[in-house]
Amino acid sequence: MKNNAHKLLSSAIILFVALNAFSQVTPILNFDATTGNYTSGMCLIDNYIYGINSYGGEFELGTFFKTSIDGTNHEIIQSFNDSSLSPQSIVEYNNDLFITTSYGSNFSGNIFKYSTTTEQMDTIFKFPKYFFNPVIKYINDSMIWGYASSLDDEGNIFKINRSTNELNLVYSFNNEDDGTVPSDFCIVNSSIFVTCYGGGEFLFPFGDGTFGYSGCIVKMDLNGGSYEKIFDGRDSIGTQPNSLTVTDNKIYGLFNSAGNDLNGRIFSFDKDGSNFEIISNINNEGRGKLILSNDRLIGITYESVYQYNLATMEYNDLLELTFDKGWGATNIIMINDSTYAVSTFQGGSNGNGAIILCTIGNEPEIVNQLSSIKYEVEIYPNPASSYINISNTGKTTFNEIAVYNSLGRLVLAKPLNNSSDRVSVEGFNNGIYLIKLFNNNTVITKSVVVD
Protein backbone atom coordinates (compact mmCIF):
# COMPACT_ATOMS: atom_id res chain seq x y z
CA MET A 1 0.00 0.00 0.00
CA LYS A 2 2.79 2.45 0.82
CA ASN A 3 4.45 1.82 -2.52
CA ASN A 4 1.18 2.48 -4.36
CA ALA A 5 0.72 5.75 -2.48
CA HIS A 6 4.20 6.91 -3.44
CA LYS A 7 3.66 5.91 -7.06
CA LEU A 8 0.39 7.81 -7.41
CA LEU A 9 1.75 10.94 -5.72
CA SER A 10 4.95 11.03 -7.75
CA SER A 11 3.28 10.62 -11.12
CA ALA A 12 0.79 13.39 -10.36
CA ILE A 13 3.49 15.87 -9.36
CA ILE A 14 5.72 15.12 -12.35
CA LEU A 15 2.78 15.68 -14.73
CA PHE A 16 1.84 18.95 -13.04
CA VAL A 17 5.36 20.38 -13.13
CA ALA A 18 5.84 19.42 -16.76
CA LEU A 19 2.64 21.20 -17.78
CA ASN A 20 3.09 24.36 -15.74
CA ALA A 21 6.81 25.22 -15.61
CA PHE A 22 7.89 28.58 -17.02
CA SER A 23 8.84 28.15 -20.67
CA GLN A 24 10.55 31.54 -21.04
CA VAL A 25 12.61 33.64 -18.60
CA THR A 26 13.78 37.05 -19.83
CA PRO A 27 15.73 39.68 -17.84
CA ILE A 28 14.40 43.15 -18.76
CA LEU A 29 16.34 45.31 -16.29
CA ASN A 30 19.67 44.64 -14.57
CA PHE A 31 20.12 46.84 -11.52
CA ASP A 32 23.29 48.83 -10.88
CA ALA A 33 24.38 51.62 -8.50
CA THR A 34 22.34 54.20 -10.46
CA THR A 35 19.06 52.30 -10.65
CA GLY A 36 19.34 51.07 -7.04
CA ASN A 37 18.33 47.65 -5.82
CA TYR A 38 16.15 45.66 -3.42
CA THR A 39 12.77 46.28 -5.04
CA SER A 40 10.08 46.65 -2.37
CA GLY A 41 7.14 47.17 -4.73
CA MET A 42 6.05 47.17 -8.40
CA CYS A 43 2.95 48.23 -10.37
CA LEU A 44 2.00 47.75 -14.02
CA ILE A 45 0.52 50.65 -16.05
CA ASP A 46 0.33 50.75 -19.87
CA ASN A 47 3.12 48.25 -20.57
CA TYR A 48 5.46 49.88 -18.05
CA ILE A 49 6.54 48.47 -14.72
CA TYR A 50 6.87 51.20 -12.11
CA GLY A 51 8.96 50.17 -9.12
CA ILE A 52 10.69 51.36 -5.97
CA ASN A 53 14.12 50.29 -4.76
CA SER A 54 14.95 50.69 -1.08
CA TYR A 55 18.68 51.22 -1.69
CA GLY A 56 21.03 52.78 -4.23
CA GLY A 57 20.50 55.68 -6.59
CA GLU A 58 22.25 59.06 -6.73
CA PHE A 59 22.14 59.49 -2.95
CA GLU A 60 22.20 55.76 -2.12
CA LEU A 61 18.86 56.12 -0.32
CA GLY A 62 16.51 54.47 -2.80
CA THR A 63 14.93 55.13 -6.20
CA PHE A 64 11.62 55.33 -8.04
CA PHE A 65 11.91 53.96 -11.59
CA LYS A 66 10.01 52.65 -14.59
CA THR A 67 10.93 50.09 -17.22
CA SER A 68 9.07 48.91 -20.31
CA ILE A 69 8.05 45.26 -20.27
CA ASP A 70 9.91 44.66 -23.53
CA GLY A 71 13.15 45.79 -21.86
CA THR A 72 13.87 48.66 -24.27
CA ASN A 73 13.25 51.73 -22.10
CA HIS A 74 14.34 52.45 -18.51
CA GLU A 75 14.06 55.66 -16.53
CA ILE A 76 14.93 56.80 -13.00
CA ILE A 77 12.04 59.07 -12.04
CA GLN A 78 13.44 60.06 -8.64
CA SER A 79 16.42 59.33 -6.41
CA PHE A 80 15.42 59.77 -2.78
CA ASN A 81 17.59 61.82 -0.42
CA ASP A 82 17.86 62.30 3.34
CA SER A 83 14.71 64.47 3.44
CA SER A 84 12.67 61.36 2.64
CA LEU A 85 14.33 58.04 2.05
CA SER A 86 13.99 54.28 1.64
CA PRO A 87 10.65 53.81 -0.17
CA GLN A 88 8.43 51.13 1.37
CA SER A 89 5.33 50.67 -0.79
CA ILE A 90 3.79 51.65 -4.12
CA VAL A 91 0.07 51.42 -4.97
CA GLU A 92 -1.77 52.36 -8.17
CA TYR A 93 -5.14 54.13 -8.16
CA ASN A 94 -6.72 55.64 -11.30
CA ASN A 95 -3.33 55.68 -13.07
CA ASP A 96 -1.77 57.64 -10.23
CA LEU A 97 0.94 56.04 -8.09
CA PHE A 98 1.10 56.50 -4.32
CA ILE A 99 4.50 55.87 -2.73
CA THR A 100 5.49 55.76 0.93
CA THR A 101 8.96 56.34 2.34
CA SER A 102 10.29 54.97 5.63
CA TYR A 103 11.52 58.16 7.28
CA GLY A 104 13.49 61.33 6.65
CA SER A 105 14.60 64.65 8.06
CA ASN A 106 11.29 65.05 9.91
CA PHE A 107 11.92 61.63 11.59
CA SER A 108 8.84 60.14 9.94
CA GLY A 109 7.63 58.69 6.66
CA ASN A 110 5.85 60.50 3.83
CA ILE A 111 3.33 59.74 1.08
CA PHE A 112 4.04 60.91 -2.49
CA LYS A 113 1.64 61.01 -5.42
CA TYR A 114 2.96 60.57 -8.96
CA SER A 115 0.77 61.27 -11.98
CA THR A 116 1.62 59.00 -14.92
CA THR A 117 -0.23 61.50 -17.13
CA THR A 118 1.56 64.74 -16.16
CA GLU A 119 4.69 62.99 -14.78
CA GLN A 120 4.50 65.24 -11.73
CA MET A 121 5.39 64.00 -8.25
CA ASP A 122 4.13 65.73 -5.09
CA THR A 123 4.26 65.14 -1.35
CA ILE A 124 0.65 64.73 -0.24
CA PHE A 125 1.04 63.64 3.40
CA LYS A 126 3.70 63.85 6.12
CA PHE A 127 3.28 61.48 9.03
CA PRO A 128 3.75 62.76 12.60
CA LYS A 129 7.22 62.69 14.12
CA TYR A 130 8.60 59.22 14.89
CA PHE A 131 6.02 57.48 12.68
CA PHE A 132 8.04 55.02 10.59
CA ASN A 133 7.81 52.54 7.72
CA PRO A 134 4.26 53.24 6.50
CA VAL A 135 2.84 50.82 3.92
CA ILE A 136 -0.33 51.56 1.93
CA LYS A 137 -2.73 48.64 1.56
CA TYR A 138 -5.92 50.25 0.17
CA ILE A 139 -6.76 53.58 -1.44
CA ASN A 140 -9.92 55.14 -2.90
CA ASP A 141 -11.27 58.65 -3.48
CA SER A 142 -11.90 59.27 0.19
CA MET A 143 -9.53 57.14 2.27
CA ILE A 144 -6.03 55.64 2.50
CA TRP A 145 -5.58 52.52 4.66
CA GLY A 146 -2.21 51.15 5.71
CA TYR A 147 0.05 49.89 8.48
CA ALA A 148 3.16 51.35 10.10
CA SER A 149 5.12 51.58 13.36
CA SER A 150 5.97 54.37 15.80
CA LEU A 151 7.75 55.04 19.09
CA ASP A 152 4.40 54.72 20.87
CA ASP A 153 3.54 51.20 19.75
CA GLU A 154 4.83 48.01 18.15
CA GLY A 155 2.89 48.54 14.97
CA ASN A 156 -0.47 50.00 14.01
CA ILE A 157 -3.27 50.03 11.44
CA PHE A 158 -4.05 53.57 10.23
CA LYS A 159 -6.39 55.38 7.86
CA ILE A 160 -6.10 58.88 6.37
CA ASN A 161 -9.05 60.99 5.26
CA ARG A 162 -7.97 62.32 1.85
CA SER A 163 -10.25 65.38 2.08
CA THR A 164 -9.12 66.58 5.52
CA ASN A 165 -5.67 64.89 5.68
CA GLU A 166 -6.69 63.62 9.12
CA LEU A 167 -4.74 60.57 10.39
CA ASN A 168 -6.64 58.09 12.53
CA LEU A 169 -5.04 55.12 14.30
CA VAL A 170 -7.51 52.27 13.93
CA TYR A 171 -5.51 49.94 16.20
CA SER A 172 -2.16 50.11 17.99
CA PHE A 173 -0.37 46.88 18.86
CA ASN A 174 1.22 47.09 22.31
CA ASN A 175 0.82 43.64 23.88
CA GLU A 176 3.16 40.82 22.81
CA ASP A 177 0.54 38.12 23.47
CA ASP A 178 -1.95 39.89 21.18
CA GLY A 179 0.54 40.19 18.32
CA THR A 180 2.94 42.91 17.14
CA VAL A 181 4.53 44.20 13.92
CA PRO A 182 1.64 44.05 11.40
CA SER A 183 2.92 42.72 8.08
CA ASP A 184 -0.32 42.71 6.05
CA PHE A 185 -4.07 43.06 6.44
CA CYS A 186 -7.28 42.75 4.46
CA ILE A 187 -10.74 44.22 4.86
CA VAL A 188 -13.62 41.78 4.32
CA ASN A 189 -17.14 43.07 4.82
CA SER A 190 -17.05 44.77 8.24
CA SER A 191 -13.91 43.05 9.54
CA ILE A 192 -10.15 43.63 9.35
CA PHE A 193 -7.87 40.58 9.38
CA VAL A 194 -4.20 41.24 10.25
CA THR A 195 -1.05 39.14 10.06
CA CYS A 196 1.26 40.00 12.98
CA TYR A 197 4.84 39.09 12.17
CA GLY A 198 5.81 39.27 15.86
CA GLY A 199 4.22 38.57 19.20
CA GLY A 200 1.64 35.89 19.79
CA GLU A 201 1.43 33.22 22.46
CA PHE A 202 4.27 30.93 21.37
CA LEU A 203 8.04 31.24 21.03
CA PHE A 204 10.17 29.30 18.58
CA PRO A 205 13.91 28.54 18.79
CA PHE A 206 16.48 30.17 16.53
CA GLY A 207 19.52 28.14 15.55
CA ASP A 208 21.77 30.16 17.89
CA GLY A 209 19.90 29.11 21.03
CA THR A 210 17.75 32.25 21.33
CA PHE A 211 14.00 32.43 20.88
CA GLY A 212 11.60 34.60 18.89
CA TYR A 213 7.86 35.15 18.81
CA SER A 214 5.97 33.11 16.23
CA GLY A 215 3.40 35.76 15.28
CA CYS A 216 -0.35 35.36 14.88
CA ILE A 217 -3.41 36.26 12.80
CA VAL A 218 -6.04 38.52 14.38
CA LYS A 219 -9.47 39.93 13.57
CA MET A 220 -11.10 43.24 14.53
CA ASP A 221 -13.92 45.49 13.36
CA LEU A 222 -13.38 48.56 11.18
CA ASN A 223 -12.94 50.75 14.26
CA GLY A 224 -10.34 48.49 15.86
CA GLY A 225 -12.81 46.96 18.34
CA SER A 226 -13.98 43.38 18.90
CA TYR A 227 -10.37 42.15 18.83
CA GLU A 228 -10.11 38.40 18.32
CA LYS A 229 -7.17 36.10 17.70
CA ILE A 230 -7.71 33.68 14.79
CA PHE A 231 -4.55 31.59 15.07
CA ASP A 232 -1.24 31.60 16.94
CA GLY A 233 1.84 30.63 14.97
CA ARG A 234 4.13 28.04 16.51
CA ASP A 235 7.25 26.02 15.85
CA SER A 236 6.92 23.28 13.17
CA ILE A 237 3.42 24.53 12.19
CA GLY A 238 3.93 28.10 10.95
CA THR A 239 5.76 31.24 12.10
CA GLN A 240 6.03 34.91 11.04
CA PRO A 241 2.87 35.33 8.91
CA ASN A 242 3.40 37.86 6.13
CA SER A 243 0.58 37.91 3.56
CA LEU A 244 -3.22 37.82 3.15
CA THR A 245 -5.10 37.34 -0.15
CA VAL A 246 -8.89 37.37 -0.51
CA THR A 247 -10.82 35.16 -2.96
CA ASP A 248 -14.55 34.69 -3.47
CA ASN A 249 -14.78 32.00 -0.81
CA LYS A 250 -11.69 32.12 1.38
CA ILE A 251 -8.83 34.18 2.76
CA TYR A 252 -5.38 32.73 2.05
CA GLY A 253 -2.08 33.64 3.68
CA LEU A 254 1.56 32.77 4.07
CA PHE A 255 3.76 31.82 7.00
CA ASN A 256 7.33 32.70 6.01
CA SER A 257 8.67 29.68 7.87
CA ALA A 258 7.81 27.15 10.55
CA GLY A 259 10.42 27.91 13.19
CA ASN A 260 13.41 25.60 12.85
CA ASP A 261 11.81 24.23 9.70
CA LEU A 262 12.59 27.09 7.30
CA ASN A 263 10.03 25.95 4.73
CA GLY A 264 7.02 28.27 4.65
CA ARG A 265 3.36 27.31 4.86
CA ILE A 266 0.23 28.41 2.99
CA PHE A 267 -2.89 28.67 5.15
CA SER A 268 -6.57 29.47 4.63
CA PHE A 269 -9.63 30.38 6.68
CA ASP A 270 -13.24 31.36 6.05
CA LYS A 271 -14.27 34.99 5.67
CA ASP A 272 -15.71 35.03 9.19
CA GLY A 273 -12.36 33.89 10.62
CA SER A 274 -13.36 30.27 11.22
CA ASN A 275 -11.90 27.00 9.91
CA PHE A 276 -8.23 28.00 9.95
CA GLU A 277 -6.18 25.39 8.11
CA ILE A 278 -2.60 24.82 6.92
CA ILE A 279 -3.07 23.69 3.31
CA SER A 280 0.45 23.30 1.94
CA ASN A 281 4.17 23.43 2.62
CA ILE A 282 6.37 25.48 0.31
CA ASN A 283 9.85 24.33 -0.61
CA ASN A 284 11.81 27.16 1.03
CA GLU A 285 11.37 30.22 3.23
CA GLY A 286 8.50 32.39 1.99
CA ARG A 287 9.09 35.92 0.71
CA GLY A 288 6.85 38.82 -0.32
CA LYS A 289 3.10 38.54 -0.82
CA LEU A 290 0.95 35.90 -2.46
CA ILE A 291 -0.85 37.07 -5.61
CA LEU A 292 -4.04 35.61 -7.05
CA SER A 293 -3.98 34.60 -10.72
CA ASN A 294 -7.19 32.93 -11.87
CA ASP A 295 -7.46 29.81 -9.70
CA ARG A 296 -3.83 29.89 -8.56
CA LEU A 297 -1.85 31.50 -5.77
CA ILE A 298 1.58 32.58 -7.02
CA GLY A 299 4.42 33.23 -4.57
CA ILE A 300 8.18 33.53 -4.26
CA THR A 301 11.03 32.30 -2.11
CA TYR A 302 14.62 33.52 -2.31
CA GLU A 303 15.32 30.76 -4.80
CA SER A 304 12.10 30.04 -6.70
CA VAL A 305 8.66 30.97 -7.98
CA TYR A 306 5.87 28.58 -6.98
CA GLN A 307 2.13 28.13 -7.35
CA TYR A 308 -0.69 26.56 -5.38
CA ASN A 309 -3.65 25.49 -7.51
CA LEU A 310 -6.87 26.25 -5.61
CA ALA A 311 -8.94 23.90 -7.78
CA THR A 312 -6.75 20.81 -7.62
CA MET A 313 -5.19 21.73 -4.25
CA GLU A 314 -1.67 20.97 -5.49
CA TYR A 315 1.60 22.84 -4.93
CA ASN A 316 4.54 22.92 -7.32
CA ASP A 317 7.63 25.00 -8.07
CA LEU A 318 7.46 26.86 -11.38
CA LEU A 319 10.97 28.28 -11.62
CA GLU A 320 14.32 27.89 -9.90
CA LEU A 321 16.09 31.26 -9.92
CA THR A 322 19.68 31.39 -11.13
CA PHE A 323 22.39 33.92 -10.34
CA ASP A 324 23.11 34.72 -13.99
CA LYS A 325 19.58 36.03 -14.56
CA GLY A 326 18.69 37.09 -11.01
CA TRP A 327 18.56 35.45 -7.59
CA GLY A 328 17.00 36.36 -4.24
CA ALA A 329 13.41 37.26 -5.12
CA THR A 330 11.87 40.28 -3.36
CA ASN A 331 8.62 40.95 -5.24
CA ILE A 332 6.30 39.56 -7.92
CA ILE A 333 3.47 41.07 -9.97
CA MET A 334 1.21 39.68 -12.69
CA ILE A 335 1.65 41.05 -16.24
CA ASN A 336 -1.11 38.85 -17.73
CA ASP A 337 -2.61 35.41 -17.11
CA SER A 338 0.61 33.64 -18.09
CA THR A 339 3.41 36.18 -17.47
CA TYR A 340 4.84 37.50 -14.21
CA ALA A 341 7.56 40.02 -13.36
CA VAL A 342 9.92 39.02 -10.54
CA SER A 343 12.42 41.37 -8.90
CA THR A 344 15.63 40.06 -7.29
CA PHE A 345 18.31 41.71 -5.16
CA GLN A 346 21.28 39.64 -6.31
CA GLY A 347 22.60 38.26 -9.57
CA GLY A 348 21.96 39.47 -13.09
CA SER A 349 24.65 40.90 -15.31
CA ASN A 350 25.76 43.49 -12.72
CA GLY A 351 25.36 41.33 -9.60
CA ASN A 352 22.90 43.82 -8.05
CA GLY A 353 19.73 41.97 -8.96
CA ALA A 354 17.29 42.26 -11.86
CA ILE A 355 13.70 42.27 -13.01
CA ILE A 356 12.88 39.15 -15.01
CA LEU A 357 9.77 38.25 -16.97
CA CYS A 358 8.59 34.66 -16.56
CA THR A 359 6.07 33.16 -18.99
CA ILE A 360 4.19 29.93 -18.41
CA GLY A 361 3.87 27.61 -21.41
CA ASN A 362 0.50 26.76 -22.91
CA GLU A 363 -1.48 24.27 -20.83
CA PRO A 364 -3.17 21.32 -22.55
CA GLU A 365 -6.95 21.02 -22.37
CA ILE A 366 -6.78 18.20 -19.84
CA VAL A 367 -5.29 20.55 -17.24
CA ASN A 368 -8.09 23.06 -17.79
CA GLN A 369 -10.60 20.28 -17.28
CA LEU A 370 -8.92 19.23 -14.05
CA SER A 371 -8.81 22.83 -12.84
CA SER A 372 -12.61 23.06 -13.03
CA ILE A 373 -13.16 20.11 -10.67
CA LYS A 374 -14.28 21.12 -7.17
CA TYR A 375 -13.67 18.66 -4.35
CA GLU A 376 -15.87 18.86 -1.26
CA VAL A 377 -13.73 17.11 1.34
CA GLU A 378 -13.71 18.07 5.00
CA ILE A 379 -11.21 16.80 7.58
CA TYR A 380 -12.04 17.42 11.23
CA PRO A 381 -11.34 18.04 14.06
CA ASN A 382 -8.41 20.29 13.21
CA PRO A 383 -6.29 20.47 15.36
CA ALA A 384 -6.74 16.79 16.25
CA SER A 385 -5.46 14.71 19.15
CA SER A 386 -6.60 11.10 18.68
CA TYR A 387 -8.43 10.79 15.34
CA ILE A 388 -9.60 12.66 12.24
CA ASN A 389 -12.88 12.30 10.38
CA ILE A 390 -12.85 12.43 6.58
CA SER A 391 -16.14 13.54 5.08
CA ASN A 392 -16.51 13.57 1.28
CA THR A 393 -19.71 15.09 -0.09
CA GLY A 394 -18.41 15.60 -3.64
CA LYS A 395 -18.83 13.44 -6.71
CA THR A 396 -15.27 12.09 -6.68
CA THR A 397 -14.68 8.95 -4.59
CA PHE A 398 -11.29 8.62 -2.92
CA ASN A 399 -10.11 5.11 -2.13
CA GLU A 400 -6.74 5.67 -0.44
CA ILE A 401 -5.12 8.01 2.10
CA ALA A 402 -1.44 8.77 2.73
CA VAL A 403 -0.23 10.94 5.64
CA TYR A 404 3.17 12.68 5.62
CA ASN A 405 4.92 14.47 8.49
CA SER A 406 6.60 17.90 8.20
CA LEU A 407 9.81 16.24 7.01
CA GLY A 408 7.98 14.63 4.09
CA ARG A 409 8.12 11.10 5.52
CA LEU A 410 5.18 8.76 4.96
CA VAL A 411 3.75 7.83 8.39
CA LEU A 412 0.46 6.23 7.36
CA ALA A 413 -1.07 4.71 4.22
CA LYS A 414 -4.36 2.80 4.14
CA PRO A 415 -7.45 2.29 1.98
CA LEU A 416 -10.61 4.34 2.49
CA ASN A 417 -13.87 2.45 2.63
CA ASN A 418 -16.59 5.01 1.90
CA SER A 419 -17.48 8.69 1.81
CA SER A 420 -17.02 9.01 5.58
CA ASP A 421 -14.03 7.51 7.34
CA ARG A 422 -12.27 7.84 10.70
CA VAL A 423 -8.46 7.65 10.82
CA SER A 424 -6.49 7.32 14.05
CA VAL A 425 -3.62 9.76 14.71
CA GLU A 426 -2.79 8.40 18.16
CA GLY A 427 0.96 8.10 18.61
CA PHE A 428 1.69 10.91 16.12
CA ASN A 429 4.10 13.58 17.30
CA ASN A 430 2.69 17.11 17.59
CA GLY A 431 3.02 19.06 14.36
CA ILE A 432 1.58 19.58 10.91
CA TYR A 433 0.76 16.61 8.67
CA LEU A 434 -0.04 16.67 4.95
CA ILE A 435 -2.84 14.36 3.90
CA LYS A 436 -3.07 13.03 0.35
CA LEU A 437 -6.35 11.50 -0.84
CA PHE A 438 -6.18 9.34 -3.98
CA ASN A 439 -8.35 7.77 -6.59
CA ASN A 440 -7.27 6.37 -9.93
CA ASN A 441 -6.97 9.80 -11.61
CA THR A 442 -6.80 12.43 -8.89
CA VAL A 443 -4.68 13.44 -5.91
CA ILE A 444 -5.78 16.21 -3.56
CA THR A 445 -3.95 17.63 -0.56
CA LYS A 446 -5.27 18.71 2.83
CA SER A 447 -3.51 19.26 6.13
CA VAL A 448 -4.16 18.72 9.80
CA VAL A 449 -2.44 19.81 12.99
CA VAL A 450 -1.90 17.15 15.66
CA ASP A 451 -1.68 18.87 19.02
Quick take:
The protein has helices at 2-20, 365-371, and strands at residues 22-30, 37-45, 48-55, 63-68, 74-79, 85-93, 96-103, 110-115, 121-126, 131-139, 143-150, 153-161, 166-172, 180-188, 191-198, 203-205, 211-213, 216-221, 228-232, 239-246, 250-257, 265-270, 277-281, 286-293, 296-301, 304-309, 314-320, 327-336, 339-346, 354-360, 377-380, 387-392, 400-404, 410-415, 420-424, 431-438, 443-450. The protein has 451 residues and is mainly beta. The strands form 10 sheets. A 4-stranded antiparallel beta sheet has the order 1-30-29-28, with no helix packed on it.
Assign the structural class, choosing from mainly alpha, mainly beta, alpha/beta, alpha+beta, or little secondary structure: mainly beta
What is the mean predicted local confidence, pLDDT?
86
Termini, distance in Å? 27 Å
Number of structural domains: 2
What is the oligomer described by this structure? single chain
Poorly predicted regions are 1-20, 362-374
CATH superfamily label of the largest domain = YVTN repeat-like/Quinoprotein amine dehydrogenase
Layout of secondary structure:
Elements: H1 2-20, E1 22-30, E2 37-45, E3 48-55, E4 63-68, E5 74-79, E6 85-93, E7 96-103, E8 110-115, E9 121-126, E10 131-139, E11 143-150, E12 153-161, E13 166-172, E14 180-188, E15 191-198, E16 203-205, E17 211-213, E18 216-221, E19 228-232, E20 239-246, E21 250-257, E22 265-270, E23 277-281, E24 286-293, E25 296-301, E26 304-309, E27 314-320, E28 327-336, E29 339-346, E30 354-360, H2 365-371, E31 377-380, E32 387-392, E33 400-404, E34 410-415, E35 420-424, E36 431-438, E37 443-450
Antiparallel strand pairs: 1-30, 2-3, 3-4, 4-5, 6-7, 7-8, 8-9, 10-11, 11-12, 12-13, 14-15, 15-18, 16-17, 18-19, 20-21, 21-22, 22-23, 24-25, 25-26, 26-27, 28-29, 29-30, 31-32, 32-35, 33-34, 33-36, 36-37
